[in-house]
């Protein structure tokens, strides 16, 4: 490029930057129209839905529902965009940034859903799904309130979820160990399980978030609840409770003592760890209820060998030993959708008792939040047991990467990886999170 | 219609398309980099050069930049100088059939998509089931076993090794073509003067492929600053950000940390670096033309 051309290009770029900066400052997304969620639906047009049901065995669930709904309402076409747990984060944000969110879209609870509510992108469904409404009464109150902000109800909870330690009963019997009642007993059991020929706990942290799940449950045990909740918000965070260092130290002990991959655990896929457990190579694997039925699918762990228990709390921990890690997951309706009543009608169909029972049963094994959908008859034993434990828990601790602001979640994520490799001490990890929290104020 | 008008009629649609799809997004990105942009509400607050100031204080940005530079250095060593040596060796093989076979062998990895190659190497490096650790074990080098992509010390070299494997054949092939263009008489004359193959390589081959060497150096550096796929597939920038490069840090800043203005600032840095390399490439290509 000749110098003159370069200068011209730079001048053009600079001018355009200033012009763009001037015209975009303070710009707003399209604000939601005042659509009435309770209005009668017009059964025509295309309804677009972004799900987290891509891949086997989940994919056919929404496909079947869409086909059935189209049959019931021939004027309606249901367009599915099915993503995986990993890809839906990027997809949702890309669609949000380009103002192209579909009519109905998947959401986690916590700050994830709050972002959409705060940004005016989620329709207020209080009139149709709030407690006391006909539809609202079909859900457990806890599940509904997980998507409530400032007294308004935005989300349609589809299934409940919780994290438990899955264990191989045959491996435990062979090693002569009992289900541990304390964290210390869990660590002690690893020696016997290893001697019996098993990797005590398979764990893959290639994506970073699996470590956050251990850390979140241990924080709930080691840090007083009020302190931890205040620490999740940068405005009130102090992150100086000694429980954090204790919890991080315990996590490191678990990785070093109970996994075979130890400091190299970041190089293992979550799914590889799951396979190791399902193939009977490891004795334990920390997993979500949503994964339980995968473990006992055909050719894998025999149903009778699969058991679950809550990650045991350490002795004398300062937090709350009754807290279970988990939260419901659900769907929001795009506030800018011209088909809000139709979207509501479709989601009512999705959460009908019949469809909720199908969702809760194998092969899907996604425990519906609809009251009465998960029973010993309709669900597998482990899914039923897991969701019962979630329902009985006085309080749930939602996933760390969705319950705090992204910068802080990212600092916990990197910190977890550094703790595993041994490049940072628990104190250094906590300090890096403190810095991220301070910067996010 | 005059010839000039007819020419313009042909060129204008193409120019418009390039303008809309190439130059406008570039300029728009500069605009985004001056904003604090909340994608959820759509609000955009002008922060001037604030995002660039934030870059200076961001240790992960510097780690990313360092990794890109390291990538460039390693790629120049392997993909430029290494492949020049290899191309000279291949071209020195007397059998035409063997030459063709060797070129194909080295070129095949280039035909595999980066994502597929990344996944393939992910499984080669896997600590429990991976081929590499099994091989080390088989030859009695158990002590060298590693969780290659899971340890901060080995993750970046492991990713770079895969990238070299993938790109090596492309530059080898280009050098092979450049060597074939050198008149045989020059080699014959050198041989008559009694020069050995090593001296012929340094005194005939290297100077006469300098044009291609210059182009490949620029392409390699430019490619090293645009690295994304292999890192994303193999490590996502982890563990503990040790394998972040500018591309993955851009992605993480935007799509994980919701800081799209900051991500745009990183994109601008990548653009400026690659633009500078492109300008240098044009300059070098013009000055170092080989004629015989």
TrEMBL record, chain A:
InterPro entries: Bact_solute-bd_prot1, SBP. Residues 1-21 form the signal peptide. It holds the Pfam family SBP_bac_1. The lineage of its organism: Bacteria, Bacillati, Actinomycetota, Actinomycetes, Streptosporangiales. This is ABC transporter substrate-binding protein. Keywords: Signal, Transport. It comes from the Bacteria. PANTHER family: ARABINOSE-BINDING PROTEIN-RELATED (PTHR43649), OSMOPROTECTIVE COMPOUNDS-BINDING PROTEIN GGTB (PTHR43649:SF29). It comes from Microbispora maris. Belongs to the bacterial solute-binding protein 1 family.
Automatic annotation (TrEMBL), chain B:
Keywords: Cell membrane, Membrane, Transmembrane, Transmembrane helix, Transport. Residues 65-281 form the ABC transmembrane type-1 domain. PROSITE patterns: ABC_TM1. It is a multi-pass membrane protein. It holds the Pfam family BPD_transp_1. SUPFAM superfamilies: MetI-like. The chain crosses the membrane at residues 7-26, 69-90, 102-125, 158-179, 208-228, 260-284. It is found in: Cell membrane. Its main location: membrane. The keyword Aminoacyl-tRNA synthetase does not apply. InterPro entries: ABC_transporter_permease, MetI-like, MetI-like_sf. Belongs to the binding-protein-dependent transport system permease family. This is Sugar ABC transporter permease. It comes from Microbispora maris. The lineage of its organism: Bacteria, Bacillati, Actinomycetota, Actinomycetes, Streptosporangiales.
